[in-house]
Amino acid sequence: MNINIVNIFTVFMVLFAVIDITGSIPLLISIKKKTGELQAGKATLVAFGIMLLFLFLGEPFLNLFGVDISSFAIAGAFVLLLLGMEMVMGIEFFKYESSRASSIVPVAFPLIAGAGSMTTLISLKSQYLMFEILIALVMNIIIVYAVLKATHFFERLLGITGIIILKKVFGIILLAIAIKLFLSNTGIKLPNAT
Q1: In this structure, what are the phi and psi dihedrals at residue 125, rounded to the nearest 5 degrees?
Q2: Of the candidates 15, 33, 17, which has an alpha carbon nearest to the alpha carbon of residue 169?
Q3: Is residue 191 part of a domain?
Q4: What range defines the domain where residue 53 resides?
Q5: Mean pLDDT of all residues in 162-188
Q6: Domains of the chain: total
């Protein structure tokens, strides 16, 4: 099996941008203040389990409804486009319900393993090997756990301005990825595109 480091890094960056755990630090701190200590291990394991389940069983589930991966990837591209626009423009397209069981809802689901993450995982299967996606997912889960354990440290390190800048940068990257995903699954070729 050939390990393509560039592909793994690309998938890692896509998932990192979609999960957006660093952009969620202000929200995580707010939840922590309202509900007490977040259970980082529990939230991380539940989110990882949800994403793995969708990665492996999402496609057979879609087949029950007669939806192919390319169509789902195109739908996923629209979700990624909206998520990117949210990050860049600060407009809220997606609403999240809060809950008292904060480690699971809303932290594990939908904050970490939300619609964007699940859609992205299936969409990535149309272009990357499962092994590459799994490695990138595990790398992201490790970062998610670290951020959940050290929210105050990251807040002091980055500051509010740093977090906002990261969110905007990853939002632009996500917009570009959404466009690439859409084009590659529709067969549309742009001039000068390879």
Answers
A1: -65, -20
A2: 17
A3: no
A4: 5-184
A5: 82
A6: 1
